[in-house]
Amino acid sequence: MRNEHPDNRSLNVTDASLVDIDRRGGPFSETGEQRANNTIVLAFAPLHKAALGLASGIVFALIFALITFIDLLVDPQQTAGLGLLAQYFYGYSVSLAGVLVGFAWGFAVGFVAGWFLAFVRNVVLAIWILYFRARADWLATKDLLDYV
Amino acid sequence: MTRADDELRRTLARIDGRAWGVAMGLVLGLGLSIATLFLVIKGGPVVGPHLALLGIFLPGYSVTWHGALFGFVYAFFVGYAIGRLIGVIYNAASKPRHNPR
Q: What is the pTM of this model?
């Protein structure tokens, strides 16, 4: 059975492990300040690179296979010229074998694209956090010399 | 740092499938309709012969004014489905494994 803490719902977090933390008197059952901190931690949580790669890989693969299959079904006089994709994807053709090859190529391309998207997003987020931390430190200490 | 804090920090962000669906839908929908409108406005003896090939996959779509609207609706639905699917698979694949200690 899945229990949802109100905080978890608002954060779209429904994982059982977090609810377990809550039951042990952990972060979600503590003060408002700690709750706010947890919210920030989750808001800046990194994306899982392999998971996003897998998700986009599967979707790209399905799209590639599906459009090849649809192109196979239509009138040969009226094809969309998908065969030109063989210029970039070795072994691909508008045929039943091409559906499988397209699926494999779609997965490979989608995986790399998704993995890279998550990687770039995490790097940009990390730089952003670093910038704000450095700025906060500077603001906290900029009047230090006034007290000397 | 407590064990709970550590676990929380290692928790990965889950993505909102609906938000991804809407975002992907808008990107694809606006992309296709802008591309269509650009070609229609540009004009010429044969308007957008290559983009018109999308009509094979999207029945009813054409490089015309109403085709731009039609293409937006089509591409939005396709993009929405793609975004939702990515959200579902990502959330399933990134679910943290709980190691009992």
A: 0.71
